[in-house]
Structures are given as structure tokens and as C-alpha cells.
Design goal:
The protein has 40 helices and 45 strands. The protein has about 1350 residues and is an alpha+beta fold.
């Protein structure tokens, strides 16, 4: 009743509000139908629906439902996920499915009910168990991806109230997270599955009881602060959660059922300014429209056409929307196969096949099994529910991996037009778009016939991508063979490959030549040779990885050969079919298992008051708001009167003089208010290092030249194409080698040295030299850069709402840019949707550009970077190249190291010199080398300016250290762990820059990790596995880490706070740190609660603002939580001291009584807090100093399995032991370790930034740049925080954990290298070898050298123009 009444109320309100929407827009175009749909139980009537408008834009800008986020705009990240519910009037069934609202045309929603995260649950009514569990189990950090996670899981539960763990993992295939590392998300959702123990993750499950309780240590140095003697396991208490309440869900509106029945015979037409949307209801009507408008696309899910519109700025005057045509949804079985309607979406196709397969004999279902296998990894669940079978077929994208399967299975397309019907085979010619095998412009695909397999027929499919799921294939393939009955003689053979060119290609000549051959090794050798002759791949092929892709051509055929041979042996056991035992391991591919985690940390003192939150895994203070969509980010601020939007024009040249900028045509474009350039800046154009707008020259492709300001973002973006710029090219420098050749550096080299390196080289037994390379990395924060600048009407005051790590720097730069005092500028940052260093410098210049636009127009300006522009304009982690020379003894003891390192800084100084200093200062990682020298150079190139990134150069330099240590072990034939332990820090010693360091806890962490990972037994098991498996190998590695915390200048650690107590007893805390997802605000609440001795519920923390806290330093450098905590502590202690007399007078009184008494006694209830900073310094002239406040220690051990045929790998297990001392919040700190680890996993194993030889970045979104997903989390992921350690200089003896986990992902890198080494050894390759980072599928496969890698054609460097260059 409540839900029905809500629908009726919202129907009335919706009619009124939609009138307001219509009136606020320009006059309607030619008569349109009313668009009727529901959102969160509210009826929406849109009388002027625009076919070009997408649901995401409508939700956020029209309905102000900002919980649904813009993350990428192309359906690749899941931040925009909503649930769509539809009613089928023929079947009388309601269907619920997740969808990417960034791709969903508004007009496609006629008769649908949309549920957003706000409709699932909220803090004002009732939380849904999904939201509550996700928040309380630490499943959100920055929170920007969280609404999408909630909606994916909610959609699953609406269809499957008790899902399997496999279904839960699959539901999240299309969701990306850059913060959490996914493990806590899976843990929180696993409580809904009957497969998981209800106590899993709480420490009470038997599987969590893996730690030793109350383990004491001789090394315990710190009785203070007091801690308990035992260890806790698990971070949430699932038994406290309420079960799901189905009555909380919105019912499907009965009115929509009535509308569906009434309109199923009525054509719908929606007219926009440029596009008309027509939704026919009968096949003949659709065919008539297609004959009338032959160039009009048919749109079902908009997953292909939508990308054309988004990326290529294509506009279609007519769009035909056919899902309401019943003939396109038919599903029926015929004598020799099944017929499936072309509008069937891929999720429905999966369900259809899953239902049909059990009903048929196994021999008839081979193609269906193959399709199901490919569907499991195709895109995410959101795309699978939108993309149609017919659309997938007709779009014929080369990476699409269903089409080759359908072609191999001899599928037939049933076509129709006004001229009649016909059938064409879905074969190689069709996929290659040969005119004689294609559709005519008037034809549509009505259905697809997929035949049953035959007894002597076999169909297989293969694919390899940079990420196992939700990633386009590097190469995909489908193969079919049919034998003469009862024999192994080939009667028919089909071979198809995708990812080779712009279309799927086949090998008909190879197939023809092999017909009549027996299925044996002679045929295999001949087939590989013929395939490589027939399928040509240019050395300049788009996508690169040419030799790897050539290798996969024959590797896939080899796997197909073995699969068929094995099947033949099963069918005909009496036949003499030779399947060598060593090849058995080539069969089968990796299947994902849901990850399981264990987290252990020291419990608090039992005597600690329950209300004191310090040391407890308190939930993130915004966790609930993240999960309900109520957390407000910069672009979630409501419309501001008179606001304008800005889009920017960027350089198309890497280095050139600007000859002219012609903005005249842009200024005449509809809705354009102004074009802003450097000439419009009233003050300084940037600073000495970087400009806000380019003036005389551009220095990289993506350099901002001007901004177009218009009434809407769409108009501004369109007008940018009308700005004409003329250039004169200048010489460009792109790579580190280019920079070395041209002596192009930022500042002079940095150097540290210890002992006498040259002398030591004369005393050692052996010397090796080598090189190391580590690629760059994009921050890929889920929330792109965004600023909202609001000029006030008096005194030149400006409010800036900005997603930044450094509000004070934004204030300062905007002040100098506009030539006004900083005290007129107020910067506000409530929270940031991920940053990782990427919003420290560049954001400042982007905000300044928006401020110039606001200053020129006098209006508020909203400047939001789309994902592709954000990745195009902003740099990332520094690519790294290094040379090493290492001298060592025959027992493995390293005596001398000489290093020379280079980083690619890009076009401006940014933070490159600082990053270089960290690279040099941390270059020895955890090793005590008596004679050590490191020199570093920051290269200046014409690429986007690289900047701070989580770890700040440490992951690159420490990986390099581990490379030269492992090279020593390989040279001597010694176990890597032995050489690492031998050279590890063990006692109090000094670093190469003469700072004292106590290495005793390094040893403790090392031994603990060896024990907890069961390293030696695991190593033995790995070796046994490798002896028995030729084509799959396992590897294991354990890696130490000494992580230097903080900066080498004291002022960088300063922090300030303001704490106000109000008369009602409530407390407001301001601090100078920004909440980036790292839990800074949560820890500040814990500190304030502890110091004031009041419950956290009394305390509220305010947004980061430059008004109460001036001159705060950048939030970053790993120590922001602890230094801001010191400032908050200082302020709270001041207040508590003032209150002491009042408390002594009435010790049994309440907090509120004390506050009111203090007020009446004129005691100030406001106090500032300040922390000067940790003493630190570094003198680069002498190469000495106390560079870091303190050091942290950790060890990571990982085990992997690799597929030597494809280069794929699977992360089986990771154990991390971390010296966290006394964690203020174990939940947050463990989350930071896990999230950092997964980010490091991307850096070291899969993320690649690609540039053209001209300097243009190719990787601009989740389609081309792959961060880790749920499928990459180790199956067993255990974190152990070492107990009974101390850090006397930090608040409460804590240690920073923000960036520490990143480098420990190198344990996966070296585990893969260990597996590759096992493969090479078995193939007779015993020499020392080097692998570069990222150690992706291509590098793994090509390092596992075999006769397939030897048979492919090789291209001589310099004889062709590569698609991409190696910038490091």
C-alpha cells in the first residue's frame, strides 16, 4: 500500500515537474509522443524527450539524482549503474537488469521503471542491507564507485535472492574500483550467498582462525600506548546485520503494465533538435522504415552506436529502435538447431543456452558450450544486459569474440526487407564485410539460426585480453573441425581470428589444404606454417604487440589441436591417437574463484572504554553516505543561477609554435558565451613551471590552449571543434633516450653515495651489469578532475568547489592568475573521488582556467573533464629506466652497487624533481649495501607532465633494486629468498644518505611472512607442480620492503586544525587535510573522540576549506592523517585543559552540563591546533641528511600460476605482513594496504600507457587502459599487522599505511618471473634473463620461449614505423 501510494503521489508530482522541465527548455520540435517512465517510484512524463539525451545526464541534471556517477561515459567502469525494470505484455513477466546509464538513451525507457541508488535505501528512511553491509565491512574508501557497486548487487538480488558466489563475482565484472582492492566488497556481498559461512570475515569463522592468539615477542619495545595481548581477525560482524527485506523494494508500477498493454500496437516517435527516434511495433513497419531510411541505425542497447556518437561525434538524423517488435525476440527449437531473435540481449542469450543445454545430448551442444564460455568474459553484466545478439553480429568489431564462434558453428542469419526474406551464412566473408556476403542497406537481421553440433564435429574458442574479464581481446579465435565419420580425417575445417585487423579474418586457404589430412602432429606443424603464411600482421599494426599476436595465432591452434585430440581419444578409445603427457597441461584455461581474505591485527586494551574508538576498525565516516549516494562530490553541487560550462581546446602537436588562434566561428556557435585564452588572464599566466593556457607555444599533445564557455557542456564541446589553430612544428623529445641525447633534464642530477664503490668492485668475486624498465601508470581516479567556480557580486570574492588534494595551492594560483588577494578566494573540498597524487598539481591549473572563464563572463562556470580528456591532459606515474652494476661474492653477499636512474618527467617540472629525489633516496629498498652509489636524472620531454603518484617513485626504484638482487641470485644459481635475506637490513645501521635506521623489525616481518605463508612448503609444492606440467607453471616469491615515510623538508609535515564546541555539546572539527578516501576524516573523529573523551556521535568534521584553515599543505606524502591528527589532538587537548576546572567541580556531570557551565564562565570553546612537522632535511650538495621522519617495514609473499601458451596468469595467494605499529583504525589501514597492493598489481602486471611516435596518447579510457578488476584479486589474500611494535614520533605510536602496499605487489611480479624461469629452464634456457614492467600477457608469453615463438616471423627494428613507442 505504501509503495502504491508513493507511485500515485509521484505520478501527480511527476506530471507537474515534467511540465516545469518542458517549459524550461526551448520550444518543442515537431510533435512527439510523451515519454512515460518511472524513477524510484516517481512517474516521469517528458513531453519533449531528446533522442540524443542519455539517462545519466537526465538523472543528474534534470532529476538531481546525483548518486549515479559519471566515471567514464562509455560503459566501462560501472559508476553509472542503475537498475532497469521492464514488463513484457506478451509473456506477462517483469525483468530487472543492471545497465550503464551513461549509454542508455532516454527514449529507450518508455514504459520502464528505473531504480537508482537513492531508491534502494537512504539515511532518512531505511538502509538496504546491501548498503549497510558494504559500509560496515569497509567496502568503500573514496566512495565514488560505491553506488554502482550497490546497484549491481541490488539488481542481482532482485533476480536471485540467494545468489551463488560465482553470480556475485559475475555481477561485479563491469564495476571498477581504484581504492579498496575489491576484497572487502566481495566479503560484504558474500553474506547474501548461502555458499559462504555467515561468520566469514568476522574472525569467528573457522577459516579465519589462522593466526596465533596473544603471540608475544622478545622485540617488544613499547608498553605505551596500551594494547591488548591478543590478535583480532576480521573487520566486520556479519551476525549483526539484518536480513534482506523484500518489502523495502519498489514494486513494478501497475500503471506501466497497463501502458505496456495499451501501447504494444502503437508506434512511438520522439523528435529532437537533430535526431528523430522511431520505435515500431511490427516487423513490416520496421522494414518499411528501413527502406525509407536505409542509413538509419537500429539501436537496441546503444553499446556500439553510442560509442560512435561519443567518440566520433557522429549524429544520426533517424534512429530506429526495434526492441518492441515481437519477431525480433523469438526463441524456438527446430530439428537441427535453435533460432534466436536478433534483439535478444547477451544476458538473455546466456540464460537461453543455460536452459537448453541440459535438455540436449552432449554431442549437439558443443557450440552452445563454447558460446557460454565466451559470454562469461564478454564485457560486464551491465553491457551483457544491453547489447543485443543482432547488434553484436552486425557491428562486427574485430575484438568481439562471439562472432567467430557463430561463424565457426555455421550460424545462419535470417534477413528481411521490403523485398522479402533471405538467409545468409554468418561466415568469414560476412565478418570481413565482403559486399557479396553482407546485408543490403534495407535489410535487417530478424533472427539467428545456431545449429546443433554433430557427433564428429568439434568447436572451440579462445581469447586473451589484458584483463581476464570486461576487456576487449588482444586476440580471439574460434575453430571448428568435422571429421569423416568414425575417423580422424579432416572433412571440414574453419579457422577464424579477431584482433588481427579491423575485421575478423579467416584462413580458408589453410583450411582447404588441410582437408583430408589426419589429425596428428604432422598436420599440426603444417597448419601452423600455413596459418602464419595466410594471416599476415603488419609490424605497424594498430594495438602493437605484433610478435605476441602472431604467436597466439599458432598457440591457439595448438590448444585446439589438443582439445580435439583429447575428445577423439574419449570417443574412440581403441584408436591409436598420440596425446603426449607433457601436453596435457596445455588443456584448459584459468577459471576465477571468488577471493577470500583474512585480516589480523592487535586488539585494543580490554580496559579501554567502549566509546573510545582509537585502535578499533571503525567504519569510514562517510561509508553509509557513499552506499546511499548521499555523499556529495564537487560536480554533485546543484545548479547555480546563470551557470555556464567550459570545454577546452587542446594541442594536436607535441611541440610547436602557435601562429594563430581563430575563435570567430566558435563564438558564433549556438549557446557560446565566450572563448577564454591566455590574453584574458588579468594576472600571471600560471607560475614559473607551467601555464594555465598556452601562449606562444605548445609543449605536448593535450596542452590546453583555450576554453569555450557556453550555456551547456554539449554546446561548449561542440564549439571547440570550430576553433582553428595554426602551428609551426618544433623538434620534439618524447623518450628517455631522446632526453639523454639532447641533455634535456629538470635541474641537475641527484646523488647519494656510501663507502668506496670503485674500490669495492676490485675486491668482489663477480660483477654483473644490466638495465631495468618500469612503465608509467595512469591514476585512473574514479572521479575525474572537476571544478565549479562561483564569483560573488562584491569585493572580487570567489567560491571554488574543487576536487583537489591541495586547496591552498588552488587558492594561491587562482589569486595570482586573477590578480586578486588570496583572502577573497574560498576553496571548498568536501571529499575527493580518488586522487593518488594526481590531484595535487594539475588540478590547480584546471581550477585556475575555470576561474579565468568565470572572471571574464561574470558567471559561475562548471568545468568537468570527461574521462578521455582527463587522461589526455593529465600525466601519471613516471616511466623509469635504470642501469645497474653490482659486485658480489660467490656466497651471494653484495658488496658494491652503482646505479644510474632516469625518469620521464614530461613537459613541465611539476613534482618530477621531488619524485627523482625519492627514487634516489629509496633506491636500496631494504638492503644494507656497504658500498653504494645512486645517481638520478629527471628528463624533460614533450609528453603530458608526469606527477605525484601513490608511492612517489618508490615502486619503480624498489622494483629495480629487487631486479638486481634477483639477478645476483640467478647468476649464482641461489634461491632468491636466500640472497634477499643475506643482504637485508638486520640491525641499526645508516642509509647511503647517512640517516640512521633500525632494521630489526625488517627481520621480524620477514620471518613472520615466511611462517604465515608457509613459504618453504609452498616452494616445494610449486616445484613439484612445475615438474609435472609443461605448459602451465607456478611461481612463488617473497619480497621485503623498507618504506620511507614523509618528506625531506619539515614544512611539508605541518598541519593545522580548528575545533569548536557548541553550547549543546556538539563538536565541529576543521583540519587542513582533504578526504581522498584514505579515511583521514574518520581518523580525525577518532582522535577528537579519544582526546575529548566523548562519543564520536557528538563530533562532526567539516569540509576542507581555506577559510578556517589557511595555508595548509598538500594532502599526501603518506603522513597527512597522522600530522593532521597531531593538530586535532593539540586543539582538543587545549580545550580539555580549559574544561578541567569545570569537570573537577562536577565530575559526575554530563558533557553538555560542563559545556554550558564553561560558556557561562566565559571559557573559550574554540581552539586552534598546530603541528610544526617532523624534523627532516636533505642536503643534496653533500648527499646527506635526515631525509625522512621514520621508516616502515613490510614483506609480501605471492604465489601465481601462468599459462605458457597465452601469457595469462592467475593470482593464487598473497600474504602481507606489515609493521603498522599501533593502528589508529585497522579497518582503514588494512584497506589502504589492500587497495595499494591492487594498484601496484596494475602497475607491475597489466597497466600500460601507450603513445604514438608523434607523442599522442592512445590510452584514454577503460576500453584501452585496464586497471585490475575483481578477477585479479588473489584467491587467498591475507593481511597481518605485526603486533607490539612502536613508533615514538607519530600520534599514538601509529605508522602511515597509505602507500606502503603498492610496492608489495612486486611479489606477484617476481612470482610470475619465477614461473617463467621454470618454463625456460625446462626448455633448456638457463641463462639470466630480464623482464620489464608491466609484466603483461605479451611479455610473459614471449619470455616462455618455445618452438611457437621461434616459428613466427620477426621484424627488424628500424625497418618499420611502430604503432607505439617505448617512452622509457
Amino acid at each position: 500500500l505504501k509503495q502504491t501510494w508513493t507511485c500515485l503521489v509521484f505520478e501527480i508530482f511527476g506530471q507537474l515537474s515534467s511540465c516545469a522541465f518542458s517549459c524550461s527548455r526551448m520550444a518543442c520540435r515537431p510533435a512527439s509522443d510523451e515519454l512515460i517512465f518511472f524513477v524510484n517510484g516517481r512517474k516521469i512524463i517528458e513531453r519533449c524527450a531528446d533522442p540524443e539525451e542519455l539517462l545519466l545526464n537526465y538523472l543528474r541534471k534534470r532529476l538531481r539524482l546525483t548518486g549515479t556517477k559519471y566515471g567514464c561515459g562509455i560503459g566501462g567502469c560501472g559508476a553509472c549503474t542503475v537498475m532497469v525494470s521492464t514488463y513484457n505484455p506478451d509473456s506477462k513477466k517483469i525483468r530487472h537488469f543492471p545497465a550503464n546509464s551513461c549509454l542508455l538513451p532516454l527514449c529507450s525507457l518508455y514504459g520502464a521503471a528505473v531504480t537508482t541508488v537513492e531508491g534502494v535505501g537512504n539515511t532518512k528512511t531505511k538502509l538496504h542491507p546491501i548498503q549497510k553491509r558494504l559500509a560496515k565491512c569497509h567496502g568503500s574508501q573514496c566512495g565514488f564507485c560505491t553506488p554502482g557497486m550497490v546497484m549491481s548487487m541490488y539488481s542481482l538480488l532482485r533476480n536471485y535472492p540467494e545468489p551463488t558466489m560465482e553470480q556475485i563475482s559475475a555481477a561485479l565484472d563491469g564495476n571498477l574500483c581504484r581504492c579498496t582492492g575489491y576484497r572487502p566488497i566481495i566479503d560484504s556481498f558474500s553474506a547474501f550467498s548461502p555458499e559462504r559461512c555467515p561468520l566469514a570475515g568476522s574472525g569467528k569463522c573457522c577459516l579465519d582462525q589462522e593466526g596465533e592468539k596473544g603471540k608475544e615477542r622478545e622485540e617488544d619495545l613499547a608498553p605505551e600506548p596500551k594494547r591488548g595481548d591478543g590478535m583480532c581477525s576480521g573487520l566486520c560482524q556479519p551476525e549483526d546485520f539484518q536480513p534482506r527485506d523484500p518489502t523495502q523494494d519498489y514494486i513494478f508500477p501497475p500503471e506501466l503494465m497497463r501502458i505496456a498493454e495499451e501501447t504494444k500496437q502503437r508506434t512511438l516517435v520522439f523528435n529532437g533538435e537533430r535526431t528523430t527516434w522511431i520505435s515500431p511495433v511490427a516487423l513490416q513497419e520496421l522494414l518499411g522504415l528501413k527502406a525509407k531510411y536505409p542509413k538509419a541505425p537500429l539501436v537496441v542497447g546503444n553499446t556500439s552506436i553510442g560509442l560512435d556518437v561519443k567518440k566520433l561525434d557522429v549524429c544520426y538524423p533517424i534512429i530506429l529502435y526495434p526492441p518492441r517488435v515481437p519477431d525480433l525476440h523469438i526463441v524456438y527449437r527446430v530439428q537441427n538447431g535453435i533460432v534466436i531473435g536478433a534483439a535478444t540481449n547477451l544476458a538473455q542469450l546466456r540464460d537461453i543456452l543455460l536452459n537448453i543445454v541440459p535438455e540436449l545430448p552432449v554431442e549437439k551442444t558443443k557450440i552452445y558450450h563454447t558460446l557460454l564460455k565466451q559470454l562469461r568474459t564478454l564485457a560486464g553484466e551491465q553491457i551483457r544486459n544491453l547489447a543485443s545478439l543482432g547488434g553484436h553480429i552486425v557491428s562486427r568489431g574485430s575484438p568481439w569474440h562471439l562472432n567467430p564462434v557463430l561463424a565457426a558453428g555455421k550460424a545462419v542469419l535470417n534477413l528481411a526487407s521490403t523485398d522479402g526474406t533471405r538467409q545468409i551464412p554468418l561466415n568469414g566473408e560476412f565478418l570481413e564485410r565482403l559486399p557479396e556476403a553482407d546485408l543490403s542497406p534495407k535489410e535487417v537481421i530478424v533472427s539467428v539460426f545456431i545449429p546443433f553440433s554433430k557427433k564428429d564435429e568439434f568447436v572451440s574458442a579462445f581469447r586473451q585480453a589484458e584483463r581476464r574479464k570486461n576487456a576487449l581481446s588482444v586476440i580471439n579465435s574460434a575453430m571448428q573441425v568435422r571429421f569423416q565419420p568414425g575417423t580422424d580425417v579432416i572433412e571440414d575445417l574453419t579457422i577464424l581470428y579477431g584482433g588481427i585487423g579491423c575485421t575478423t579474418v579467416s584462413a580458408p586457404a589453410t583450411s582447404q589444404k588441410l582437408r583430408g589430412r589426419k589429425w596428428n602432429e604432422q598436420m599440426l606443424d603444417e597448419a601452423c606454417r600455413l596459418i602464419l603464411e595466410e594471416i599476415q600482421l603488419s609490424p605497424s599494426a594498430v594495438g602493437g604487440k605484433v610478435e605476441y599476436r602472431r604467436t597466439l595465432l599458432v598457440s591457439f591452434f595448438f590448444r585446439f589441436y589438443l582439445e580435439v585430440l583429447q575428445a577423439l581419444k574419449c570417443m574412440y578409445p581403441s584408436k591409436d591417437l598420440d596425446l603426449p603427457k607433457k601436453n596435457l597441461s596445455a588443456l584448459g584455461e584459468f577459471h576465477d574463484s571468488p577471493p577470500r581474505g583474512v585480516q589480523e591485527y592487535q586488539e585494543v586494551d580490554p580496559q579501554q572504554p567502549p566509546q573510545d574508538p582509537v585502535g578499533r576498525p571503525v567504519m569510514h565516516e562517510s561509508g553509509i553516505k557513499h552506499a546511499t549516494g548521499e555523499a556529495v562530490y564537487s560536480d554533485d553541487i546543484g545548479p547555480i543561477d546563470g551557470q555556464l560550462y567550459m570545454a577546452v581546446v587542446t594541442s594536436t602537436q607535441a611541440h610547436a609554435k602557435i601562429l594563430s588562434i581563430d575563435t570567430s566561428e566558435a563564438l558564433e556557435a549556438p549557446g557560446v558565451v565566450a572563448v577564454v585564452t591566455a590574453a584574458d588572464i588579468p594576472g600571471k599566466n600560471g607560475d614559473e613551471n607551467e601555464k594555465v593556457f598556452a601562449e606562444d607555444e605548445v609543449i605536448y599533445i593535450g596542452h590546453i590552449i583555450c576554453g569555450v564557455v557556453a550555456e551547456t557542456y554539449e554546446l561548449a564541446k561542440e564549439a571547440t571543434q570550430k576553433v582553428k589553430i595554426k602551428y609551426e612544428d618544433l623538434e620534439r623529445i618524447l623518450t628517455i633516450q631522446d632526453a639523454i641525447q639532447h641533455n634535456s633534464y629538470f635541474e641537475e642530477e641527484r646523488k647519494v653515495e656510501k663507502g668506496n664503490v670503485e674500490k669495492a668492485f676490485h675486491t668482489v668475486d663477480r660483477i654483473i651489469e644490466g638495465e631495468t624498465r618500469v612503465g608509467g601508470q595512469n591514476h585512473f581516479y574514479m572521479e575525474t578532475n572537476r571544478s565549479v567556480v562561483v564569483p560573488r557580486k562584491e569585493d572580487n570574492e570567489i567560491d571554488i568547489y574543487v576536487s583537489t588534494q591541495d586547496a591552498s595551492n588552488v587558492q594561491e594560483l587562482v589569486a595570482t592568475t586573477l590578480d586578486i588577494q588570496a583572502n577573497r578566494i574560498r576553496c571548498h573540498t568536501t571529499r575527493v573521488g580518488g586522487a593518488f597524487g594526481g590531484k595535487s598539481v594539475k588540478t590547480t591549473f584546471l581550477a585556475a582556467a575555470a576561474a579565468v572563464a568565470a572572471h571574464k563572463t561574470g558567471c559561475p562556470v562548471r568545468f568537468i573533464l570527461e574521462r578521455d580528456k582527463d587522461m589526455f591532459i593529465c600525466g601519471g606515474r613516471h616511466p623509469f629506466w635504470g642501469k645497474y652494476k653490482v659486485g658480489f661474492m660467490n656466497d651471494g653477499k653484495i658488496e658494491a652497487v652503482d646505479l644510474e636512474y632516469y625518469i620521464n618527467g614530461g613537459c613541465t617540472k611539476d613534482d618530477s624533481v621531488w619524485v627523482l629525489e625519492w627514487v634516489v633516496l629509496r633506491s636500496f629498498n631494504a638492503y644494507d649495501i656497504p658500498n653504494f652509489r645512486c645517481r638520478g636524472h629527471a628528463c624533460k620531454t614533450n609528453l603530458p607532465s608526469n606527477t605525484a603518484f601513490r608511492g612517489f617513485g618508490f615502486p619503480q626504484t624498489a622494483l629495480s633494486a629487487e631486479m638486481w638482487v634477483s639477478a645476483v641470485a640467478d647468476t649464482l644459481g641461489l634461491p632468491h629468498e636466500k640472497v634477499r635475506e643475506m643482504n637485508m637490513l638486520k640491525t641499526v645501521t645508516v642509509t647511503p644518505f647517512k640517516q640512521e635506521v633500525d632494521g630489526r623489525y625488517m627481520v621480524v616481518c620477514w620471518k613472520e611472512c615466511l611462517e604465515r605463508s608457509d613459504y618453504y612448503n609452498q616452494r616445494k609444492a610449486v616445484e613439484e607442480f612445475n615438474q609435472q606440467n609443461y605448459w602451465k607453471k607456478k611461481g612463488i616469491a617473497i619480497v621485503p620492503m623498507m618504506f620511507a615515510v614523509g618528506c625531506n623538508q619539515t614544512y611539508c609535515h605541518q598541519a593545522a586544525a580548528l575545533v569548536n564546541i557548541y553550547i549543546d555539546g556538539s563538536v565541529l572539527v576543521h583540519c587542513g587535510g582533504c578526504e581522498l578516501g584514505q579515511g583521514l576524516y574518520t581518523k580525525m573523529l577518532q582522535v577528537a573522540s579519544h582526546e575529548l573523551k566523548i562519543p564520536s556521535s557528538y563530533i562532526h568534521i567539516f569540509e576542507r576549506s581555506t577559510v578556517p584553515i589557511p595555508n595548509a599543505v598538500l594532502t599526501g606524502g603518506y603522513v597527512s592523517s597522522e600530522v593532521n591528527g597531531k593538530a586535532v589532538q593539540n586543539a582538543c587537548q587545549t580545550l580539555r585543559k580549559r574544561l578541567e576546572p569545570v569537570i573537577k567541580e562536577n565530575p559526575e556531570g554530563k558533557w553538555e552540563d560542563w559545556i554550558q557551565k564553561a560558556f557561562k564562565e566565559s571559557i573559550s570553546l574554540s581552539a586552534t591546533g598546530y603541528f610544526k612537522g617532523y624534523p627532516s632535511n636533505m642536503d643534496w650538495k653533500t648527499g646527506e641528511g635526515h631525509a625522512f621522519p621514520y621508516f616502515g617495514f613490510g614483506v609480501g609473499c605471492s604465489k601465481v600460476e601462468i599459462d605458457c601458451l597465452t601469457g595469462d596468469h592467475k593470482n593464487l595467494q598473497t600474504d602481507i605482513v606489515m609493521d603498522a605499529c599501533y593502528s589508529i583504525n585497522p579497518g582503514i589501514d588494512i584497506g589502504q594496504i589492500e587497495g595499494g597492493f591492487m594498484q601496484g598489481l596494475g602497475l607491475f602486471t597489466q597497466e600500460e600507457i601507450k603513445f604514438s611516435p608523434e607523442g599522442e596518447q592512445y590510452t584514454r579510457g577503460p576500453d584501452t587502459y585496464k586497471i585490475p578488476g575483481v578477477c585479479d584479486v588473489p584467491e587467498l589474500f591475507r593481511i597481518y599487522l605485526l603486533p607490539n611494535t612502536r613508533n615514538p614520533i607519530a600520534i599514538y605510536s601509529s605508522k602511515s599505511m597509505g602507500d606502503a602496499g603498492v610496492f608489495l605487489a612486486s611479489s606477484v611480479f617476481f612470482a610470475i618471473k619465477d614461473a617463467v624461469a621454470a618454463a625456460r629452464k625446462q626448455r633448456g634456457l638457463n641463462g639470466v634473463f630480464t623482464l620489464d614492467s608491466p609484466l603483461n600477457v605479451a611479455r610473459i608469453r614471449m619470455a616462455c620461449a618455445d618452438h611457437f615463438t621461434e616459428m613466427i616471423p620477426k621484424d627488424e627494428p628500424g625497418t618499420f614505423k611502430p604503432w607505439a613507442i617505448d617512452i622509457n
